[in-house]
Specification:
single chain, 539 residues, 6-stranded mixed β-sheet, disordered C terminus, 73% helix, alpha+beta, 15 helices
């Protein structure tokens, strides 16, 4: 397997589990982040619900009461009280608007309700101006305007409560809404019932508003019974089950049906019960509102804990990425080093199989593979073989020893390597015999190169292991032919060069003999004749 494939396998082994861990980490971080945003939104809605409920139950109706008191008795005391209630409503409304989610975070339905609420408040502002200018005479009552604003406020609060995710806060917000509806119905019934019993300024519209208050009260009570498992709600239900409360509800039904005849004793008792009931409900509203505030603070703490978890997970993920990256780099480097050492070992083994260990030249096995490749590349150009061996080499071994012979062979191989051309193939053919394959060379060209090598060997001064110095000579035989595509075998050249080498030996050694040109497609008989011909060239 190549290094590139090994590196890919290592990378896959390291990175695939890492990718799965990254995906799981991102999913976990995303989930925690979404939970953080949900908790933050719930915390925000908790404040909005508490403020909105307080405005609907207290501030709007308190300003209405103060405004009616001023209309009926225009003096400095009633005016100061009215101005104080106006400022209180405006202040709470500003805080409520500031705590609302950004416009982009609200859906179309919620934005529409908010627009309707602002329109209702603009009508309250217009009513204030009318009151200040005296357009409302004694007995005048802007209850419809304030009542509509209170209903719009309650509607917005209920819509916001439906967008809460936390189940505990959702339950408490639903409880608050139930109490607010009950309280708002009781407030309308109390205000209009007193006017009914006093027989002052009780018109057909007042009767419709009384019916509306009764319906609102009934809706609130139904919702309270649905949440009867809550301790606060159970306290309200137990309170409403008392005999005086049941008596007051009975007389309220009589007022709604129009059959109750005013009586001062009944009036005073009914008004007293209604006021106690409103005080009781205000206490429960305050209790639930405070509880929602506390729950919102807990949600805020939980959201910060989740953000801490998100940051910790993100930091851990970054550290994990860095660690895996470091391991991947080290793994790749280790694989690279192991692969490099393996390739070096393989190359060494390959070279050992194809290279003569003494001289560093090709051995016959390596030479055959390289020569075949060279012949394939040479096309139809000339190719020649030069065969040479050392003269009287046996005598060197006999006189100086085999170690000296090895030194001579290695030195001669070095001289031959430097003297032949860089693209010639050189091989230790056996013993003291060497061979070179020369591409793009005629026998005459090969003879010229061989002569240069012969002179270099003859001039070499070889130092033996014992300190002695020695000179040697060599005999050369050359043969050549064109490199036809149909004939990739150069055995005929080797045989012809071998004959030329014998001729050089017979001619007194230390010389170069070039044989005749061997036809590329000559029959075997003609090759034998050519080998025995008299066309050698003595150089």
């Amino acid at each position: 397997m190549k290094f590139k494939n090994i590196r890919r396998a290592v990378l896959a082994a390291i990175l695939l589990p890492f990718v799965f861990m990254i995906v799981e980490g991102v999913v976990l971080i995303r989930s925690s982040l979404m939970q953080y945003h949900a908790l933050e939104n719930d915390h925000l809605f908790a404040d909005v619900l508490a403020r909105g409920g307080s405005i609907a139950a207290n501030e709007i109706l308190a300003e209405l009461v103060a405004t009616r008191a001023y209309i009926n008795d225009r003096d400095e005391i009633t005016r100061a009280s009215m101005i104080e209630r106006r400022n209180s409503l405006d202040s709470e409304l500003a805080r409520f608007n500031a705590s609302l989610p950004a416009a982009g975070a609200m859906d179309v339905g919620l934005q529409s309700q908010l627009s309707n609420l602002r329109l209702a408040y603009s009508r309250i502002v217009a009513a204030r101006s009318a009151v200040d200018r005296g357009y409302y005479g004694k007995g005048g009552n802007p209850v419809h305007i304030y009542g509509q604003a209170g209903l719009k406020q309650l509607g917005l609060v209920e819509s916001l409560s439906s967008r809460i995710h936390d189940p505990v806060l959702m339950r408490k917000s639903s409880e608050l809404m139930s109490i607010l509806l009950t309280y708002y119905g009781e407030r309308l019934i109390g205000s209009l019932g007193q006017r009914y019993l006093d027989r002052t300024d009780f018109s057909a519209m007042s009767h419709e508003q009384l019916v509306q208050g009764e319906m609102m009260l009934g809706n609130g009570m139904d919702r309270l019974r649905f949440h009867s498992s809550s301790p606060v709600i159970q306290e309200i239900l137990d309170y409403r089950a008392q005999p005086d409360e049941v008596w007051a509800d009975t007389f309220t039904q009589a007022m709604v049906s129009g059959v109750l005849r005013p009586d001062k004793a009944i009036r005073d008792k009914w008004i007293g019960i209604q006021n106690e009931r409103l005080d009781f409900l205000r206490q429960k509203i305050a209790s639930v509102t405070d509880d929602i505030h506390v729950t919102g603070q807990r949600l805020s703490m939980r959201s910060h804990i989740h953000m801490t978890i998100v940051l910790a997970l993100s930091a851990g993920l970054v550290l994990l990425v860095a660690l895996i990256a470091a391991l991947a780099v080290r793994g790749i480097r280790l694989v690279a080093r192991v692969t490099e050492e393996r390739e070096l070992l393989v190359n060494e083994l390959r070279n050992a199989a194809q290279t003569d260990l003494l001289t560093g030249l090709y051995n016959r096995r390596g030479f055959e593979a390289a020569a075949l490749a060279l012949l394939m590349q040479a096309g139809s150009r000339w190719i020649s073989v030069v065969l040479f061996d050392l003269d009287h080499f046996k005598k060197i071994n006999d006189v100086h020893g085999h170690d000296a012979g090895d030194v001579v062979l290695k030195h001669v191989a070095d001289v031959a390597r430097e003297s032949f051309r860089s693209f010639d193939l050189l091989v230790r053919h056996g013993g003291e015999e060497f061979m070179a394959l020369l591409p793009d060379s005629t026998p005459e060209d090969a003879a010229i190169v061989a002569e240069r090598v012969r002179l270099a060997i003859e001039a070499a001064d070889i130092e033996l292991p014992g300190g002695e110095r020695l000179r040697v000579t060599a005999s050369f035989g050359c043969a050549g032919r064109t490199n036809a595509v149909s004939n990739r075998n150069f055995d005929d050249l080797v045989k012809r060069a071998d004959l030329a080498l014998y001729a050089a030996k017979a001619s007194g050694r230390n010389c170069v003999v070039a044989g005749p040109i061997v036809p590329a497609t000559a029959p075997q008989e003609e090759r034998r004749k050519a080998a025995g011909g008299s066309h050698d060239i003595r150089i």
